[in-house]
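## Example record

The block below lists the input lines for one assembly entry, exactly as stored, with component labels intact.
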Amino acid sequence: MEVSYTSIFIIVINREGDGIMPKPGYMIGEVYKNLLKKRATILYPFKEKELVHLPEGFRGKLVFHRDKCIGCQMCFRVCPAQAIKIIEDEKGKRPVFFMYRCIYCASCAEYCPVKAIEVSNVFENIAFDKETLVVK
Amino acid sequence: MSFYIPVGPQHPVHPEPLLMKFKVEGEQVVGVEINVSYTHRGIEKGLEYREYLKGIFLAERICGICNAAHTVCYTQNIEQLLGKEIPPRAKYLRLIVEELSRIHSHLLWLGLAAHQIGFETLFMYIWRDREKVLDLLETITGNRVVTSYNTIGGVRRDITPQIEQKIRKALDYLEERTKYYKKVIMEEPTILARTQNVGILKPSEAVELFAVGPVLRASGIKHDVRADDPYIAHDEVPFNVATYDTCDVYARILVRVDEVLECIEMIRYSLDHLPSGSYRLKIPVIIKPPPGESVSRVEAPRGELLHYVKSDGSPRPYRYKVRTPTLANIPATARMLTSRGDYSVYIADIPIIFGSIDPCLCCTGRVMFVDIEKDKSWVWTYNELLKYSLERFEKHA
Amino acid sequence: MLEVLYKILEMLLFPGFVFIGILSLLYEWIDRKFYAKIQNRVGPLYAGPHGILQPLADFIKLLSKEDIIPEGADKPLFTLAPILFFTVNLLLTLLLPICGAAGVISFTGDLIFLAALLTIISILVYMAGVSSSNRFAVIGAERAILQLIGYEIPFMLSIISVALTSNSLTIKDIVESQSGIWYIFGPHLLTFIIFIIAAQAELERVPFDIPEAEQEIVAGWLVEFSGKKLALFRIGRDIETLLMCGLGATLFLGGPLGPTIPGLEMVFYALYFTLKSIVILLILSTLRALFARIRIDQMLTFSWRYLIPLSLLSLLIVRVMA
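Predicted structure tokens for the full assembly:
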């Protein structure tokens, strides 16, 4: 006696059951497509450092142009984290920025009337001593 | 024969610390006690020491993910105090960033919910697609998560036509992927088995316990601050409020996925109808608003967010109060986590029920004392707290 | 005398303990890399070329950590559980036919011996969980026994269907009767599917990793083990993976049989065995990526309502087609 077991198969799998049985493993197509796609991780920092893409307006470390500063102390008044100290040098008053207190909000760059403060896109602001993180 | 299981303060399922003590019998949960005061940071006090313009950056850091909602609420509050109206282009730009951050928050939550039921693959795929939203936010505002886009009187930057092109392309990709994830959630049997009929909150209980946000909308009640009390440009941009009727975790997942699709439509509409003009009012750096009070409400990704300010004419606020949506959802969670009658809760359901309210506990901790026997509740002032802590230190030193 | 020496060398080196150890670490690497590739990420990367030494590095790191025994724990059982877990699994791999139709140990009825010792492994899990004085461990151990009640019967029935077709309960005869056509192309496709599901439940992997659910009960019955005991549990789990994949390859894919060159038979047989069990490992890894974790009561309902009738049906099919 020969039973066609493929037909038994189809009856069992198409059963409208409760919970577990209907269409298990819905994501199988997606899973096998992703085996062929390239990986989504960037192997930063050992191998693929240049693939990290930063857009134009990124708020990173500050760059200060001393020749444009007029000593109005506006940046000192706007900084929310008190990361700016005003000192006196031979050309007049000027700010010193402590990047370890900075919250990278770029308010100082926005309120500076002569655009002496520029926001770069350096984001790796770590150091072993505090001196490296002071922008003069 | 029951015993107590502590879930927290450190536990693989919690993104932030809280303590839930469960009373279990075998695999069934019989009672729960929740303690949320582990992340109290004193932000309301901190806001009293900062001028209004600097306070934006502190208010933004109340919650990392809802930071757009907190800044919209704060700046709206101060603008109401000053009696100023922001230009229309600023309203639309604020709406774009707020809705983008809502998409980000919901996609992040969806990945976490998949992780909490053990579905790692869906978690990885959703978080890969969330990177597109973060790249968009970085292009528009300069930073991925804490955006600092709003300021008192408008927004800080404008969007150029190239940024608009990038937004549209990313929105097309996100729409296609979200529709695929919605189909996976509705068809995959293991997800259905874990989320249907789990964590039921009936509509009467939801109203009685003051639930907010998607938790309320998943119980069939159509309430959304953007529709009932429109702020920024929400009265001009049309959208549908997503509700579902089944009152369980499955409905909450679907409400949030539908909200993502609605946000995509809203951003497209506002990009098409963006008014021209200036995007910022000129406001002096030191603001001295007239004495008075103001309240503003905003629909954060987690629910209704409330800010209250009282000023006495000086450059710093006299009192600032924040009521976050997760705090309002905690009593509803305690009700969802106890078994009563026919409805039983298992230990295996705890992570997904607690995760379905989208907990953001960094916003939550406020200290309040409740005495059930004498039926009164009170809040301590700073001097009483100081006296109590000094006495305790003398006793236990 | 020379025979005894030869047998001891076979047991220790090839295809015995050292070979099984290396192969099980390789299988863990394949599993992790495949699972990571499905999720669009990289798996282990830096320990050795392409991260192939990562499981070995994990094992050595665990051996060097501090071994803490909780105060209220039942010391004899607590210390004995990992040792027995590792030993029983290692012993059972000696029954696998790697270098020929018979394994290093082969006697009449060794299929039943293997199935019985697999049940003892689950009881060891229960022992490990209950002897740590921790509520999460007790819950995990109780879930492990409930899961055993679920998958045990389909597993046994699928093994028995294969034994019925080959008219013998000895692994050597099952392998030799597949020299014509492998059982998976014969009447045993349904049995193969049931065996895969039951093997996933035995190995406690998603969707059946309920006793060890990370999000609910923080590592379940394993929670109090650390240092050398945890290392023994982890490598015992890897060896159990190799055992299940090897068993699947033996019962359904023809074991080590295939075209060989006379004289170099041992090498070729080992190669075919490895390749076939890697195929089964890849199927198990895909299952791991496709599903969410189900609850214990849902697992028992699924098993008793769907798996057991299906396995009885497969028994009927085999009987009818023979």
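The longest helix of chain C spans residues 135-166. Chain C touches chain B at residues 38-41, 135-136, 139, 142-143, 206-207, 209-210, 213-218, 289-298 (CB under 8 Å).
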